[in-house]
């Protein structure tokens, strides 16, 4: 693998020239299929959402939605008085907590299944079960178990603990999300571990490194890129998770688990305030995008720069 | 030059893809020639999860009958939940194409009406389906804001009643089921002992709580909506909620686990035979009850119609035994097959088909003569009576929000129910919030 570094160096001047040519005449049209899809699937709906957030679109104006009255930023001001900030706070805290909790579990699980042993395939398969189960199934099963007269309370020997409403509801949401989402971190960490060169293990063995320094100083730096990327994707997934709170708590949800997707859903599909809910969605998009952007700049998620590989 | 050509080609290709995609979104309207032959009528109907096979068979038999009568085919499309249905209506309303006939829940009819996307029934339209007089008059109560602006054609009714355990009541020395809410509370206390409870209530249900609040309030003379004014922050509503919460929090006549129950769970609890009453159920529950431990030991009864805290209904109180519950049929305004749609509506509202549907799925006929023919059934008597004493919830596009606000009062109070009595102040704070959102919904109503 390492010997491959040289040949590209030799041909570098040639490549330089070719790149110069292509930069002027890049076949950009090759991007058309992807570009058209991006426009159709991402940009047009986004533009529509922006437009809808500025008009008074509800059940009364839905039929002639093009003629719905333009009301400027009224939907935005209303969204702040409709509990949007509260919901964003719940969503973000829930997402960050879930991510923080799943990272050690995921990495530990990846380390456990790194070296070959009898039954490793089985363990790996079992670890993936929460990930392959549909979210709907996971939340239905948890909902059944967490009923006041459900199995969890029976095991704890206490029939009065409420898991699905009241102050514990928030922690129930976090707990079930952790249960369902850790295999994602596990998968990404496992992929990172797989790409650690064999020589690295040999070298640390030659240097007589014991397991902890080896893990901490040698292996974990390799995982930094994939795991940071996994953190980002997982947090976004948590923030966007609608099925879990919807099935666990129903709509309307208790206030302390009224996460953003639930609020937008109820506003859209039960109150039929499409304009207002579009404004809420846009505000949340902006509020989530800012820290995301900072995060991306800070961690520079270029996996190939990490660990000095290749 | 080559570059420009390529760019033009790319642009053309892009436009073609875009057009193709947009056309694909446009739906497939195939308008055939004269008569019904070769035409297809699309009907959107709720999926029946309880009896899926029988439901498929029913669809088949209706299809065959319709084909024999008109030459056209009926294509059923099912939705799993009210939300699925709403999404379907929304997309159809926006695009102006979709199902020709919709079966919608009664309380959703005002919302559907407010979109203006459905055919208003004039004399001609009623005539086409066999006349307005063929329906049980009570079922027409939620077809439109007034007699001249009706969109909903009654199809089936599912009036709410309560079920009671005949043996437990007898053992407790109760001669007949309660007719006032206070009497019910009293009997429930008599019935509660050991692992036996007086009432089974679905506190966690997404719809049940508002039905209690509305029912008790309207019996006390407050229909919750007065023109453009919401009247949720009102002593009648306050009393309704304190009674409803009180059963669990103060009187302790309900299993504490009920804070987690939806309606089917409460039904299952009652079916175990350890509960006196199951409030708010309907004929569709019959099969589950017959399969449970209560088999042969239960009966339906009319829900109390005297408001809590009173021994007789006040002068302005309404004898509301149930919300007007069931399904209405709506014909889409954009439909190109309106005549066929009315043929279909006529077919499924005729006595024979209505009775067949009742026997298969337990939904009561909206057809008056079909309903009459069931009057001889002793067990059913309270239910048919409830069908006649059903009262429509306020006909406003804001109703969806109002029922959501009422349900939310219950949802947010649930965690406190197991801790002890709920204070008036607690309920009042929540009612104030509900009043605010109900009023703002009414302000926007057109």
UniProtKB/TrEMBL annotation, chain A:
Enumerate the Gene3D superfamilies for this protein: MetI-like
Q: How does it sit in the membrane?
A: Multi-pass membrane protein
Organism for this UniProt entry: Paractinoplanes toevensis
Q: Does the keyword Nucleotide-binding apply?
A: no
Sorted UniProt keywords: Cell membrane, Membrane, Transmembrane, Transmembrane helix, Transport
Key word Transport present: yes
One GO biological process term is:
transmembrane transport
What is the protein's given name?
ABC transporter permease
Q: Where are the transmembrane segments?
A: 28-54, 88-113, 125-145, 169-189, 227-251, 271-296
Which parts of the sequence belong to the ABC transmembrane type-1 domain?
A: 88-295
Which GO CC terms are listed, alphabetically? Answer: plasma membrane
Localisation per UniProt entry: Cell membrane
Region named Disordered = 1-20
- Family per similarity comment: Belongs to the binding-protein-dependent transport system permease family.
Automatic annotation (TrEMBL), chain B:
Does the keyword Metal-binding feature in the UniProt annotation? no
Instruction: Give the matching PROSITE patterns.
Output: PROKAR_LIPOPROTEIN (PS51257)
UniProt keywords, alphabetically = Signal
Gene3D superfamilies named in the record: Periplasmic binding protein-like II (3.40.190.10)
Determine if Transcription is one of this entry's keywords: no
Q: Extract the signal peptide range.
A: 1-26
Task: Kindly provide the name given to this protein in its UniProt entry.
Answer: Sugar ABC transporter substrate-binding protein
């Amino acid at each position: 693998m390492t010997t491959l570094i040289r040949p590209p160096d030799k041909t570098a001047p040639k490549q330089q020239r070719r790149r110069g040519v292509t930069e002027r005449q890049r076949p950009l049209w090759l991007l058309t299929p992807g570009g058209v899809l991006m426009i159709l699937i991402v940009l047009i709906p986004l533009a529509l959402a922006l437009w809808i957030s500025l008009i008074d679109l509800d059940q009364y104006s839905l039929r002639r939605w093009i003629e719905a009255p333009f009301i400027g930023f009224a939907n935005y001001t209303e969204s702040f008085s409709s509990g949007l900030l509260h919901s964003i706070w719940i969503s973000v805290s829930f997402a960050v907590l879930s991510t923080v909790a799943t990272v050690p579990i995921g990495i530990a699980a990846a380390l456990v299944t790194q070296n070959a042993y009898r039954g490793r395939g089985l363990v790996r398969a079992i670890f993936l079960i929460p990930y392959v189960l549909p979210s709907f199934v996971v939340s239905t099963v948890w909902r059944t178990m967490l009923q006041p007269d459900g199995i969890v309370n029976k095991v704890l020997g206490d029939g009065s603990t409420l898991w699905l409403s009241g102050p514990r509801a928030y922690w129930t949401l976090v707990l079930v999300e952790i249960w369902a989402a850790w295999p994602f971190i596990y998968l990404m960490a496992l992929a990172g571990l797989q790409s650690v060169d064999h020589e690295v293990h040999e070298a640390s063995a030659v240097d007589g490194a014991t397991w902890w320094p080896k893990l901490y100083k040698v292996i974990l730096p390799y995982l930094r890129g994939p795991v940071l990327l996994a953190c980002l994707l997982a947090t976004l997934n948590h923030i966007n998770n609608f099925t879990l709170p919807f099935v666990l708590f129903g709509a309307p949800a208790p206030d302390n688990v009224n996460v953003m997707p639930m609020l937008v859903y109820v506003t859209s599909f039960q109150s039929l305030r499409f304009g207002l809910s579009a404004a809420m969605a846009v505000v949340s998009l902006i509020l989530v995008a800012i820290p995301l952007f900072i995060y991306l700049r800070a961690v520079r998620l270029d996996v190939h720069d990490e660990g000095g590989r290749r | 030059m080559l570059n420009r050509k390529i760019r033009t080609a790319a642009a053309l290709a892009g436009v073609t893809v875009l057009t193709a995609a947009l056309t694909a979104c446009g739906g497939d309207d195939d308008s055939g020639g004269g008569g019904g032959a070769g035409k297809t009528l699309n009907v959107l109907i709720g999926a029946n999860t309880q009896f899926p096979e029988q439901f498929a068979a029913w669809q088949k038999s209706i299809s065959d009958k319709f084909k024999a009568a008109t030459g056209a085919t009926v294509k059923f499309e099912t939705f799993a939940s009210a939300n699925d249905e709403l999404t379907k209506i929304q997309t159809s309303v926006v695009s102006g194409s979709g199902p020709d006939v919709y079966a919608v829940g009664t309380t959703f009819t005002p919302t559907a009406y407010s979109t203006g996307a459905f055919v208003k029934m004039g004399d001609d339209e009623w005539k086409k389906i066999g006349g307005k007089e063929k329906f049980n008059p009570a079922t027409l109560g939620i077809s439109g804001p007034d007699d001249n602006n009706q969109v909903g054609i009654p199809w089936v009714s599912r009036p709410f009643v309560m079920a009671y355990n005949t043996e437990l009541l007898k053992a407790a020395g109760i001669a007949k089921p309660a007719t006032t809410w206070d009497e019910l509370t009293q009997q429930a206390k008599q019935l509660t002992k050991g692992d036996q409870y007086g009432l089974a209530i679905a506190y966690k249900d997404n719809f049940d709580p508002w039905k209690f609040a509305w029912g008790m309030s309207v019996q006390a003379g407050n229909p919750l909506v007065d023109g453009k004014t919401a009247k949720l922050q009102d002593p009648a509503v306050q009393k309704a909620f304190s009674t409803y919460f009180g059963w669990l929090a103060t009187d302790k006549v309900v299993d504490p686990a009920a804070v987690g129950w939806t309606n089917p769970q409460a039904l299952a609890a009652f079916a175990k035979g350890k509960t006196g009453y199951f409030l708010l159920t309907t004929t569709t529950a019959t099969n589950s009850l017959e399969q449970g431990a209560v088999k042969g030991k239960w009966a339906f009864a009319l829900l109390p119609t005297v408001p809590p805290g009173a021994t007789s209904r006040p002068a302005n109180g309404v004898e509301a035994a149930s919300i007007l519950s069931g399904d209405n049929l709506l014909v889409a305004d954009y439909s190109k097959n309106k005549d066929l749609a009315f043929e279909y509506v006529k077919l499924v509202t005729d006595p024979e088909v209505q009775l067949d549907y009742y026997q298969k799925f337990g939904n009561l006929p909206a057809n008056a003569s079909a309903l009459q023919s069931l009057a001889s059934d002793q067990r059913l008597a309270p239910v048919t009576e409830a069908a006649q004493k059903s009262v429509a919830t306020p006909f406003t596009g804001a109703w969806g929000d109002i029922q959501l606000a009422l349900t939310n009062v219950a949802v947010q109070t649930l965690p406190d129910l197991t801790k002890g009595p709920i204070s008036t102040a607690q309920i009042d704070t929540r009612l104030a919030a509900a009043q605010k959102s109900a009023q703002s919904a009414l302000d926007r109503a057109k």
